[in-house]
Write a structure and sequence with these properties.
Length: about 140
């Protein structure tokens, strides 16, 4: 069985998660200060989720162009690591720093209340592998 070299790919991708964190914080600020006062909480949260999904896709696309993930297995592992780091940050910050109760933190994951935030961790897990596959299938140069 071939052993995969992970050292060269993990560093840039784990650092890339910090870019995701910056995007998420900027997105949340945009939602709270600009979108929510104009559109209301439910619509603003849904729109912010869609904006973050697009930003996450762009980040992964850009990062994969610069630091390609060599194998599908590594791409899935990076997605899993990003989700673990995202959820640890979200619930760690919310619970330990902001002092939010679990019910408040979990409210964004309640699809029955029109909250679609669950798409963010799902897409975070999938994006590295799907972008890797898409970029490997795309022609290297435009015609």
């Amino acid at each position: 069985m071939r052993r995969e070299s992970t050292g060269s790919v993990w560093g840039p991708w784990l650092l890339g998660w910090c870019g995701l964190l910056v995007l998420a914080l900027a997105n949340g600020t945009l939602r709270a200060l600009v979108i929510q006062p104009r559109l209301g909480e439910t619509v603003a949260r849904a729109l912010a989720t869609v904006i973050l999904l697009a930003a996450l896709t762009a980040l992964v696309w850009w990062l994969h162009r610069r630091r390609p993930i060599p194998t599908a297995r590594q791409a899935w592992a990076i997605g899993a690591a990003w989700v673990a780091m995202t959820l640890a940050f979200e619930f760690g910050w919310g619970g330990l720093v902001a002092g939010l109760p679990w019910s408040t933190m979990l409210a964004d994951y309640d699809l029955t209340a029109g909250r679609i935030w669950i798409l963010v961790p799902i897409w975070t897990a999938l994006a590295p592998a799907l972008v890797r596959r898409a970029q490997h299938r795309a022609p290297a140069t435009a015609p």
